Amino acid sequence: MPFSAALHSEWIKIRSLRSGTGSLLAVFAASVAFTALACGALGEPERGDGPFDPVFLSFYGLLFGQVAAISFGALAFSSEYHTGALRISLAAVPRRGLFYTAKLAVTGALALAVGLVTGLVTFLTGQELMGDPGIGLGDPGGLRSVVGSGIYLALMALFAAGLAALLRSGVAVLGILVPLVLIVSFVVGDVSGGIAQYLPDRAGQLVVHQHPEGDLGPWTGLAVTAAWTAVAVLAGWWALRRRDA
Asked: How far is the C-alpha of 164 from the C-alpha of 177, rounded, in Å?
């Protein structure tokens, strides 16, 4: 089967997966809604107290949108293990490398497309609600944060997909990654200084800071997240290649 046919097959499968479509919609809805709540509820006195980062504040909802991106990536692959669907997929595409690459390509492309749209709308919504302290796309950190947030969401979706291929369970992936991004990173960050900045979520989120602090820059931090994702994807490929369907 040619690669284009494998891509089309994976596109049909993911499009027909209602939970996957719902997760992508949730990426957009959660990111924009929580950003609007955070920026809309921020009063002028708070803006003047301490460091104020209009870029990071406008991506406050990304903390919740990334959970939906993780769910999408996990479901995109774990759905293959339900009711023996993987056997049918491999019967249609016997070359496991081709199947795996096509699955990840479609998953990553969809997450990136939704992530870029989400990043743009989230940024513009947040800056508009901030009023005078808000900035534009042409200001430092503006355009970079929009593009970087889309890439970050795509990487987290692929990270989850690779882990789902390794663990064969979307529930297990969510049980690992959701606490990691919502709890563990903050606890580790409070007690271990600079180590936390190398966690996949902390590193990638540096791209949505106007002036990131620490040893990593915005794109270097995103590269760290990409490295975590590459390890998960390779581990998933190892598991898929060695295990029976």
From this structure: 11
